[in-house]
Amino acid sequence: MVPTGQSSAALDPKQIARAHRAVELLHSHVYFAPETEEHLTAAGLRPGRMCYFAGRSAAMGPVGAGTVIATFYNFSPTLVARTIPEAWTLASPERVLAARFDAARASLTRLLGDSASSDEVAELGELLREATTVLTPEGRALYAGHADLPWPEEPLLVLWHAATLLREHRGDGHVAALLHSGLSGIEALVTHTALGRGFTPEAAKATRGWSEQEWADAVQALADRGLMDDAGLTEEGAELRARLEVHTDALSADPWLLLGPERTARVIEIAKELSRTLVANGALATSGLARG
Q1: For 87-94, what is the mean pLDDT?
Q2: Is residue 287 scored above 60 in pLDDT?
Q3: Least enclosed by CB within 10 Å: which of 127, 168, 243, 254?
């Protein structure tokens, strides 16, 4: 959906991906921040995977494992089922959500330091909040759950919530693109790590719960389709991944079309500076993400 009066030609398509990458860490750092487990275990959850699965899915209510498997996509169903729906017997979704916002406030305050209360944080938060006004929930279950939550009042949390909405909306669109491409959850993960721009294979297997045999079977299935060989992605595999990114960008373009080139550039400028501060202060120290 393109906002009324706007055209996809009004924005360099590459700027859509740049804006997403610039904003991403402002949300996703919470998955590696110690404050998240601290606050969610205080709310009643067990440490470890339960904090991640319950923390991110709580906006959808006390859902079962199947819903989390469907919306998270590239996690092992067995891993998800170890903690969901048991998590809701330990802490209600409402309590988990409150703890998650507290964790986001604490982690951003620590990692950003003096910048946490800066004019730039307030400016970026308002820009991103405006950008979310064109997002729609159809076919985007995880985004829709978070979009139903009330907006926080604190500028720092406005920024985090807006970044969350943009991230989950794009993620839901990416799942749609993956389905269209015919890649299963584990195949999506294998081909993504083969690009060298994200989780390393070792970290992907460990954090997503896939065994060595399951991973090897997925690699073989991709090879049988001509998408991988001993060197990694084939030309056809690389082209498939490139088309996926183009498709995902197209499905997540509306917020940036609304803001237009100049204000999108401003988003990228502020978000990149804040993200550099997060990284400099250790936001990704335990993430297992590939470098370079």
Answers
A1: 98
A2: no
A3: 243
Residue type (1 letter), 154: E
**Calpha distance 238→33 (Å, rounded):** 33
201: left (phi over 0), alpha (psi -120 to 50) or beta: alpha
CA 128 vs CA 157, 206, 216: distances in Å: 12, 33, 41
- Bridge partners (DSSP) listed for residue 229: 232
Task: State the average pLDDT over residues 185-203.
Answer: 92
What is the model's pTM? 0.93
Quote the crossing angle between the two packed helices 212-224 and 185-194, to the nearest 10°: 80
Query: Is residue 164 classed as helix, strand or coil in its secondary structure?
Result: helix
- Report pLDDT digits (tens) over 34-75: 999 999 999 999 999 999 999 999 999 999 999 999 999 999
Helices 185-194, 201-208: inter-axial angle, 10-degree rounding: 160
Question: Closest Cα to residue 281, out of 26, 107, 111?
Answer: 111
pLDDT tens across 109-133, in order?
999 999 999 999 999 999 999 999 9
CB 141 within 8 A of CB 67: yes
Q: How buried is residue 90: exposed, middle or buried, by Cβ count under 10 Å (0-12/13-18/19+)?
A: middle
* Cis check: omega of the bond before 137, within 30 degrees of 0: no
| Whole-number Cα distances in Å, 183 to 143, 210, 213 | 21, 16, 18
